[in-house]
Amino acid sequence: MQWQVNFANPFLYLFILVQMHLYTGLFITAHDAMHGTVAPNPKLNNLVGYICTFLYASFWYPQLYTKHHKHHSHVHTHEDPDYHNGNFFAWYVQFIRNYLSIWQIVVMAILFNVFKMWVPQPNLILFWVVPSLLSTLQLFYFGTYLPHKGEHDNKHQSRSLQRNHFLAFFSCYFFGYHYEHHDAPWLPWWKLWQAPRPPEGGAFD
Q: Where are the membrane-spanning stretches (predicted)?
């Protein structure tokens, strides 16, 4: 965070992408906590969930927990908080509005101004703010939009990306294997690649 910003240095863009991927991993860990797969001890599991959701974007874990399980219970319906019958941009805006609160913005604004006392503002923007925003796009595109857009001929109303474990990990920690996640939500992210392939209608051609 004290690195001298130089837009001509290609490492700057690599660092942003690495930060984005780590940010996404923070949320994936929080997501796994919502399914009880981070730790066998429920208190420890939920503690990790509280910490990761707060560090990601000042989320309140119980509220996020409720909304996420509502998504699983009412997937691809009007009661699904993650679903929107619209184009990519409209869906993304609705997705953000559904999860972002004024209190989160206030907390993150306070943290930004506190961190400015020790970290140069360009570094905060490039290596904290920008990666966190890009991470929401990464999570939305690979973990919500691609798996749930359109109509589906399967019980989980979702589809999965083609099996390519390298791309699946770097795109969104295997959450492109989305039918598998809905079919076996007790599997942590790092075991999704081992799940059985979805039936016809649950996978992209």
A: 12-31, 43-61, 99-119, 125-143
Q: In the chain, what percentage of residues exceed pLDDT 70? A: 97
Residue carrying the six token digits 């991470």: 135
pLDDT single digits (tens) 161-191: 888 999 999 999 999 999 999 999 999 999 9
Nearest to 171 by CA among 204, 125, 126, 129: 204
Q: Any idea what DSSP says for residue 36?
A: T
Report the largest interatomic distance among the alpha carbons of the chain, rounded to a whole angstrom. Answer: 55
Q: Is the pLDDT of residue 205 over 50?
A: no
Contact in structure between 201 and 153 (CB atoms under 8 Å): yes
d(CA 173, CA 92): 20
Identify the three-state secondary structure at position 140. Answer: helix
Helix (H, G, I), strand (E, B) or coil at 160: strand
